[in-house]
Amino acid sequence: MSTKAGSRARTKSIYILKFEGATKKVLTVGEEKAKILVGGNMSISANLLPEFEHEMRTTRLTLERIPNDKFNWAPHEKSMPFGRLGIHLAEIPGWVCGTINHDSLDMAPPGGPAYSLPELKSREEVLELFDTHVASARQSLAGASDEVLLADWSLLAGGKNLFTMPRVGVIRTWVLNHTIHHRAQLSVYLRLNNIPVPAIYGPSADESSM
Question: Which of 88, 108, 174, 175 is buried most deeply by CB count within 10 Å?
Answer without folding.
Answer: 175
